[in-house]
Amino acid sequence: MVPFDDRDGFIWFDGELKPWREANVHVLTHGLHYASAVFEGARAYGGRVYALTEHSERLRASAEMMGFPLPWSVAEIDAAVMATLKANGLSDAYVRPVAWRGSEQMGVSAQATKPHMAIACWAWGAYFGADALKKGLRLTIAKWRRPAPYTAPTKAKASGLYMICTMSKHEAEAAGYQDALMLDWRGQVAEATGANVFFVKGETLHTPTPDCFLDGITRRSVMRLAERRGLKVVERAIWPEELEGFEQAFLTGSAAEVTPLAEIGPWRFEVGATALGLAKDYSDLVNGRLNA
After folding, report:
1. pLDDT of 181-224, one tens digit each?
2. How many CB atoms lie within 10 A of CB 202?
3. Taking a C-beta distance cutoff of 8 angstroms, is the pair 72, 40 a contact?
4. Residue 128: CB partners within 8 Å, gap ≥ 6?
5. For residue range 258-276, what is the model confidence (pLDDT) as tens digits?
6. How many of the other CB atoms lie within 10 Å of CB of 40?
7. How far apart are CA 156 and CA 137, in angstroms?
8. Is the torsion defined by CA of 222, 223, 224, 230 positive or negative?
9. What percent of the residues of the chain are helix, what percent strand, and what percent coil, each to the nearest 5?
10. In a 10 Å sphere around its CB, with 0-12 CB exposed, 13-18 middle and 19+ buried, how is residue 149 labelled?
11. From the DSSP assignment, how many helices (H) and strands (E) are in the chain?
12. What whole-number distance in Å separates Cα of residue 269 and Cα of residue 262?
């Protein structure tokens, strides 16, 4: 793997395109020490970033929740993303906007810090590899749980909330799995380490209510696609012991797209027509072959 700090190309940084290797911050940046950072992950297909404005809106909303409003408007963020794609000569790419508190002040207090923002993009294939759509993923159950909404800003896409995701994914991969299913603080099913989860039983999709984790942009798109197929979508509390009764399961996310699951811990699932059909619908949607 080519290190992400040693690549050719350009990164948009606080209003200007900088050579990739020069897009750096100081080691005393507040965001590095205190996780005062937010980010987005989007994908470009054929030169068009799917749901770009929704991602830019969420980035600004996340920063607002974290207490450092961004000086860039949604339209300016959208334009900066497109300028970054163009500067790097990419039409199919993963896009990563990130915003953080700077190094103007050190300590828990951060009133004197300034907001900064960068946007990078790079070519990135299937998040879980080329065979995932055919074989389905193997997930274990994470020991870490998503926090209660009264303990953390769970509606923000904030970097600090992903610490336990990295730890859970590393533990899963070390045990031979590809990802982990995370429960919430109540013990209910929440999400995977970087994607939302759906379960299929007959003609109905069941998905956890996003009251302590992100209501993903891809998640909402897939719910609309499911309804177009005549499927019923139910958002509700789901307990782990219910997983035995579901026939299929899949993940959704900008990076993961729509990826079927073959197993979660002791439970097995069919890589079936519903999951595969929604994966195709989503691919058609983001590639402009299907109207939103």
Report:
1. 999 999 999 999 999 999 999 999 999 999 999 999 999 999 99
2. 10
3. no
4. 137, 178, 179, 256, 259
5. 999 999 999 999 999 999 9
6. 24
7. 27
8. positive
9. 30, 30, 40
10. middle
11. 7, 16
12. 5
Per-10-residue mean pLDDT of the chain, 292 residues long, equals 94 98 97 98 98 98 98 98 98 98 96 97 92 95 98 97 98 98 98 98 98 98 97 98 98 97 98 97 95 74
- Among the listed residues 18, 135, 157, 169, the single catalytic one is 157
Question: Is 201 tagged catalytic?
Answer: no
For position 228, what pLDDT does the model report? 96
Place of tokens 């109540």: 186
All structural domains of the chain? 10-122 (3.30.470.10), 132-286 (3.20.10.10)
Which long-range contacts (C-beta less than 8 Å, at least 24 apart) are formed by 65-74?
A: 65/153, 65/155, 65/156, 65/158, 66/36, 66/38, 66/153, 66/156, 66/158, 67/36, 67/110, 68/36, 68/99, 68/101, 68/110, 68/113, 68/115, 69/115, 70/99, 70/115, 70/117, 71/115, 72/117
| SS3 call for 22 | helix
Neighbours of 167 (CB within 10 A): 15
The secondary structure element, H or E, covering residue 124 is: none
Which amino acid makes up residue 19? P
Question: For the chain, what is the radius of gyration of the CA atoms?
Answer: 19
